[in-house]
Amino acid sequence: MIKKFSFLIGILLFGLHYGQKDKEQLQKQNAELKKQIAQINTDLAKTRNESKLSIAYLTNVNKKLVLREKVYSNTQKEKRFIEDDIYLRQLEINRQNKELSVLRNNYAEVLVNAYKNKGVQNKVTFILSAKNMGEAIRRVQYLKQYSDYQDKKAAEITRAANQIKNTIAQKQKSVKDKEMLLINQQKDLTTINAERAQKEQLVAEFKKNESKLTGELKQKQAQSKALEGQIRSIIAEEIRKAKAEEEARRKAEAEKIRLAKIAAEREKARIEAEARARAAALEKERLAAEAEAKRASELAARRAEEERKRTEEAARAEASTRDEARKVAAKKASDEAAAKAKVAADKLTAARAAEAALEKRKEDDKKAAESKAMTNFGVSTAAGNNFAENRGRLGFPVDKGQVTHRFGRQPHPVFKNIVEENNGIKISVPAGTRAKCVFPGSVSSVLANNDGTKTVIVKHGTYFTIYSNLGSVNVSKGQQVSAGTPVGTVGQDFDGSYTLDFQVWSGSTPVDPLGWVSY
Length: 519
Fold this sequence. Notes:
Number of strands: 12
Strand content: 5-15%
Order of helices and strands: HHHHHHEEEEEEEEEEEE
Structural class: alpha+beta
Shape: flat
Radius of gyration: 51 Å
Number of helices: 6
Distance between the termini: 61 Å
């Protein structure tokens, strides 16, 4: 029964080991969440002097409340881990007490037996009463083992008692951890209730000022519509100019290509004529080489045949000194004929190679002439725009900010009867933040808005990025800008917050900037 109970406790302790890892993970997560809460508190403190009736302020309060509730939820889980730990520690203490009781009972029996056989005399008598020396030695070993067994049992009891003390200490530590956790949890709950009340008060303030805020919001929306009309006009004009420039460039390029082709054809005709004259000369040389090679080959064959016949005649009769001389002369004539045949064959090979080289050089010269003509007439390929290739990897337009309004039709966070139409995103930033260009391009326009703010439009080929609600600008129309170039300082919105209105347009169509920038 004890073995089964010990096995069950072992399984529970194994689960406790992994529960401890989960608890540590929760503690790390809570520490990170508290850092985020501290950062939000810092941001709220910075904007406290600005109007609190801003969506950015309310968004931060909501975000902080969500983080607080996450911390509270994690603390609840951590409390359950600690309670499981306390319960399992108690089970372990009960198991260890049972084992200690068994050890003590066994040790008591050992002590009783030892008491019954106590005294040095009894041990000596036990040894001396052995029948022979071997049995006496075995009895000595038995007494030693029995004494070691007593010491071992005593050590096991001491060790088990120490384990119980350690387990009790761990349980007491878990109890204190739970008590401290409950205190902190109560503090967190109080803070959550206070922050929830702050949020409700803030929403109530919004409701109290609903008519004023909705009026300002509608005025801002009207200004945004007017600005959108200006942007559309500017982009339409840019597209019209780009198309006209492209058409003019295309026509100029076509004319350049036509003139270049005429010049290239003339140059290629000249090269062709020169090549034909040279080819005729080479062909004449080749034909002469072929005829010479043929004559040399026939002569060598004739000499070889004559030599063969003389050799056969010399084999049938005794050769005289005159015959030997004729044989040597014939051999020399045959060798000379073979050498001439080889020279002729080499000339023929060289002539054929020269003709092939001429043909290749002619084609290369014609291609080079065409390329040179295109270059001389200024024919080139227009460089493509790679804005689209960097989709999702563009830089963020500010160093630090929070998106408070997303792209498209969005319900107002407080006034549910108002729907906002956003051609981009709105980013709440600290005062003094500078907006940055997200990609190389040229400044298409710098607009002055009716509310005193400014808008910068940057062209990137067929794409445009727009930076609105700027208090001041750092660029001018026609200026070439790089990724990261400051375009201006973000200004205050009507609700007192500092907000950048950032847009991305593909031609005349606004697209969601969050699909383009790395956020």
